[in-house]
Amino acid sequence: MTRAALVAPVRTPVGRFGGALKDVPAVTLATTVIKETVARSGIDPERIDDVALGQSYANSEAPCIGRWAALDAGLPISVAGLQTDRRCGTGLQALVTAAMMVQTGAAEVVLAGGVESMSTIEHYTTGARWGAKSGGLHLFDRLDRGRERSQPEWRFGRISGMIETAENVAAKYGITRAQSDRLAAESHHRAHAAWEAGRFDTEVAPVEVTDRKGAVTVFARDEGIRPETSADSLGGLRSIQPGGVVTAGNASQQNDAAAAVLVVAEDRLDELGLEPIGFLEGWTAAGCDPALMGLGPVAAVDKLFARTGRGFADYDLIELNEAFACQVLGVLRGWGWDDRDRLNVNGSGISLGHPIGATGVRMLTTALHELDRRGGGRALLTMCIGGGQGMAASVVSA
Prior knowledge:
Blueprint: E1 4-11, E2 15-16, H1 26-41, E3 50-54, H2 65-72, E4 80-84, H3 90-103, E5 109-117, E6 123-124, E7 140-141, H4 142-148, H5 153-156, H6 162-173, H7 177-196, E8 207-210, E9 216-219, H8 231-235, E10 255-265, H9 269-272, E11 278-287, H10 296-308, E12 317-320, H11 325-335, H12 359-373, E13 378-385, E14 389-397
Parallel strand pairs: 3-4, 3-5, 12-13
Antiparallel strand pairs: 1-10, 1-11, 2-10, 5-10, 6-7, 8-9, 11-14, 13-14
Helix pairs in contact: 1-2, 3-12, 6-11, 10-11
């Protein structure tokens, strides 16, 4: 079976919730990275078979966003498009879906990516279709509702949201507030250091933002990094749940961003004149208790190692998405492994942000560029997923 080659991975800067990208639709972010990936790779757009794009909070403003964004980016009408959703694993799922397409011969070139504009996620109602005889209509916040409805209540009981699941992980492993705050502060310091050293320069495609008066500004740098953050300053924040560990400072952000990569059958690289930066070696998805969803990477990585015969010693970098600081620490306990010199070396969800549908490909992009700077190597990508899942993938430099 041919290998899935990875070409020209790129991402936008990550915007804060309600920040610089708050009025930029998801499809505009997606279009930006599609155009950039095509331009950087040099691919003839006519040779792209499909666009697999992940979006976790989809709506009908750009239905089947893979197709919509492909058309918006000016790709030929012959290029098909699809949409994936596996919550926090959405972008990674788009990548592996594309890889399966080229590995099985269903396609030769697929543009894969993920996007989320959490700032523009709408409120909605389920009661307006046939009208209400009296009274008002209830509007749900799609952001909160998706977290509350992540599992069937009849089977697992009510879970108020992802914060509750993180607190469950902290309680299971005896993880403290101080430990969580230290990890969160380190995430910000690493992300800031990466920008200052120019390590993100080659992976980021700026976004042009037009305000209501028509003025255009260029958004070029991740917006949520706080270099002044310390464990002491985080210690002054109030926990979200009384007596809990999770605060606004040691949890991932809500964000706006997009990322994309060209996935190509290895035996077509020379013909197409494409230079890969890496290859996808393998991937897994695994389920876990929804109440302990943060531990999803434990099962997913165990499954990946069993399939590939690899272990932590085989990886130069480990990208474990920081949904919550205590969740990361819980996963490390579950793995029985903790080497911070290889873990999230340029920051993660707490500092860089967690634009749900884009996160998986953002992680891939950062890891591949970091490996390239180091002269090659192998990276493990993994994240927990709301509703009780985990995903993991192994990539190696070209």
